Amino acid sequence: MNEPIDHHYLPVFYLSRWVREDGRVYRFSRPNGNEVKVKPVVPKGTGYEPRLYEMSGMPPDRAQAMETDFLAALDSQAALALQMLERGIAESDWTSSSRSGWSRFLLAQMLRAPEDIAQLKSSVSEDWSAAIPDIQRVYDEHRTEKDPVTVDEYFAQQNVGQVDELAFGVARKLMNHPRICSFINNMHWRVLSAIGTDAVLLTSDRPIWMTSTFIEEDAFILMPIGPTNLFVASRSLSTLGQIEAKRRKTLVKEVNKLVVQHAVRFVYGTDKSILPFVQKHMSAMRHSTLLERVANMRNFKIVSSSSPFTSK
C-alpha cells in the first residue's frame, strides 16, 4: 500500500466542522500578491503540504512514520475528544486518556505547521553543527584507517537523514511534553456557544490564540472548534469567568480578528461574504510561534520571513 504523501497540518476532522451542505469550506488565501481570493474546497484538499513530515534518506517504510504512526494516532484521539467537547461532557466525566488526547492535539497544533517544521529542522541543524567539533575530537581518537576522515562523512554513511530524524524525534517529545500537557490538562475547560446569535467563528492555519506561556496566573487558550463553538481553557476560574461574561457576538468578533491576523497562508469559513474582513486583517499582526521564541532565545536563525523576529 502506498504511503500518504499529502501531510495535513490542519487535520481533516477539525476543518470538517466548517463544511457546508456541499461538503466544502470557503478557503481564503493570497495566491498572488496582497489580494485575498476565496475558493470552496473540500477539507481533504487543503491545509496540507506534500511530504511535510517525511524523513529524508529513510527507507520507504520508515520515511512517513511521523505522519502514519505518530500524528495519525494523535489526531484519532483528538477527534474523539472533540466529539466529547461538542456533546458538552462535564469536566468530571473526562478520562485521563481523553483529556490528554485533546491537550496533546492543542500542543501539536502549535508545532506542526510548515513554518514550524522548517524552524525545527533549522534549529536542530544549528544545534548539531555546534556539537560537531567536540564529536570530531572524540571521533579522531577512535577512527581507524577504514573510517572517513570527518564525523560528518561518517554519519552521512550511517544515516543520510540524520537531521530529519533528530528533528522529528524532538517534535515527538515536544508534542508529548509531560509538563506542558499537564498544564493544559489541569486548566478549566469550557465550550462557549454562539448559537442564537448571527456571529460565526472562522478558523485558519493558526487557529490557536493563547497567552505567552502556560504558567501565568491568567493563562488561557482560545480555539474555534466549529462555526458556533469556541474552546476555552484557563488556569484560573476568574479569567475564565471574564471570557464567559463577554457578549458572545463581541467575543466571536475578537477571536475572528486574532485568528485571521495570525494566519500565515489560509483562513476558512462558511460564508464568502466575510471576504472584506479577511482582506483587511489577514496576516496583519502575526505573533511569534513557540518554536520561533525558543530559537530566538538561543540565538538561532529565524527561517520564516513573516515572523515578527525577522521583520524587526
Give your account of this protein's structure.
This protein is 46% helix and 13% strand. It is built from twelve helices and ten strands. A four-stranded antiparallel β-sheet has the order 3-2-10-6, with helices on one face. It starts with 5 loop residues before the first strand and ends in a 15-residue tail after the last helix.
Largest sheet: 4 strands, antiparallel
DSSP strand tally: 10
**Multimerization state:** single chain
Tell me the overall shape: globular
Taking pLDDT < 50 over at least 5 consecutive residues as the criterion, the unreliable ranges are none
| Class from secondary-structure proportions | alpha+beta
Strands in their spatial order, largest beta sheet = 3-2-10-6
Please specify the SSE layout and strand pairing.
Blueprint: E1 6-8, H1 12-15, E2 25-29, E3 37-41, E4 48-50, H2 60-63, H3 65-87, H4 96-109, H5 114-142, H6 151-158, H7 162-175, H8 178-185, E5 188-193, E6 203-204, E7 209-210, E8 220-226, E9 229-234, H9 237-245, H10 248-262, E10 267-269, H11 275-281, H12 290-297
Antiparallel strand pairs: 1-4, 2-3, 2-10, 5-9, 6-10, 7-8, 8-9
Helix pairs in contact: 3-4, 4-8, 5-7, 5-12
Quick structural gist:
With 312 residues, the protein is α+β, with helices and mostly antiparallel strands. It has twelve helices and ten strands. It has helices at residues 12-15, 60-63, 65-87, 96-109, 114-142, 151-158, 162-175, 178-185, 237-245, 248-262, 275-281, 290-297, and strands at 6-8, 25-29, 37-41, 48-50, 188-193, 203-204, 209-210, 220-226, 229-234, 267-269.
